[in-house]
Amino acid sequence: MAAQTAAEAQRQAAEARRAAEAAEERRAEAEAEAERLAAERVAGAARAQEAERALLDATERAEALATAEAAARAEVAELAARIAPLLPVLMRVAREPAPLLLAAPMPPEEVTLGLAAMRGMVREAQLLAARLRDAATRAREEAEALDAARARLAASEAAAREAAAALDAQFAEAQRNLTLQTRAERRAAEQAEAAIARATSLAEALARVEAARARAEAARARAEARAAAAAARRARPAPAPAPEPSAPPADPSPPGSIAPVAGRLVRGFGSPGEGGPARGLTFSAAPGARVVTPCAGSVAFAAPFRSYGQLVIVECGAGQHLVLGGMARLDVRAGQRLRAGEPVGVLAPSGSPTLYVELRRRGEAVDPRPLLRI
Q1: What's the distance, CA 298 to chain centroid?
Q2: Number of other residues whose CB lies within 10 A of the CB of residue 144
Q3: Which residues have a Cβ under 8 Å from the Cβ of 119 and sit 6 or more positions away?
Q4: Least confident of 39-48, 115-124, 237-246, 338-347
Q5: d(C-alpha 142, C-alpha 135), whole Å
Q6: Where are the alpha helices (DSSP H) in the chain?
Q7: What is the pLDDT of residues 294-321, one digit of tens each?
Q8: Are 293 and 286 in contact (CB under 8 A)?
Q9: Euclidean distance between the first and final Cα of the chain, in Å?
Q10: How confident is residue 70, by pLDDT bands cut at 50, 70 and 90?
Q11: Cα–Cα distance for residue pair 314/213, rounded to 1 Å
């Protein structure tokens, strides 16, 4: 009987080991798949930003050419208006040549003045005619350049739409894969996010982010301690489930080499404003532009917040929190781990959208430009 009991125990132990190995293998496969999809999203976001940057450049070029063409046409109209009063006089002179003045019953002094005035009118008309020809040529060239710029703009818009559609397809594929987060982790992240959303200011929200991080680390440490104590009490060693990594995997992208959006910096850190010096950077971008995180980390908050629109807070490590605000749509959720360059949301599809970027280091706002290398 004792032998049968021992054999049964060995069989159960072998089955438990095989189940643990299979679970670990499935976990490793899911982790590898998640990494592959994250890398694809980073590459897709880079392509989308490149297309959006080309679209922004093409838009600005087309606007500049349209302004130049309008200026050239206005000059043509102004010169034509100035030369118009001279035309009847010049046409009459063409019919009655200047020598007729010599036969006119006028004093010689008046005849000389008349001839000089006539020559002056002819010279002015010639100069105006030359300028009119140049302005007309320039207007035609600007119109041709504008047509070409509009064609490039249309191609850029098509490329941006294609890149955006491809990236959205990648998001859809990622949603079909199992998340690495446990239910407990998702619940904890949602609870922390709800607490952050009740903050009355961004500074208070970031303080709550830091407090939630400290609580999560303490809870993880307690869980690991309990697992270690339970393993020590057992007579035989048993494989313990691997703890969730607290930081994202190694990121091949060099830190700080990724712009958060394909746009133009319109307000710098510390610049004066109605609410005092700016605590972050503001970028203008094309409607519907993609927003990415310049640093790897975990999402502490992803939801609407006060006047910031859709807001994302990324814990970048080393006591740093990156704030990205002003989006119309979010593509991440609280608790999600991100690679540098991974997309987090989209700006408004119309108007003149802006992105607000703020970096907090141990609770203090610091200039984000060294991180972004701009």
Answers
A1: 19
A2: 12
A3: none
A4: 237-246
A5: 10
A6: 2-83, 86-95, 99-103, 108-176, 183-197, 202-233, 369-372
A7: 999 999 999 999 888 999 999 998 889 9
A8: no
A9: 76
A10: confident
A11: 12
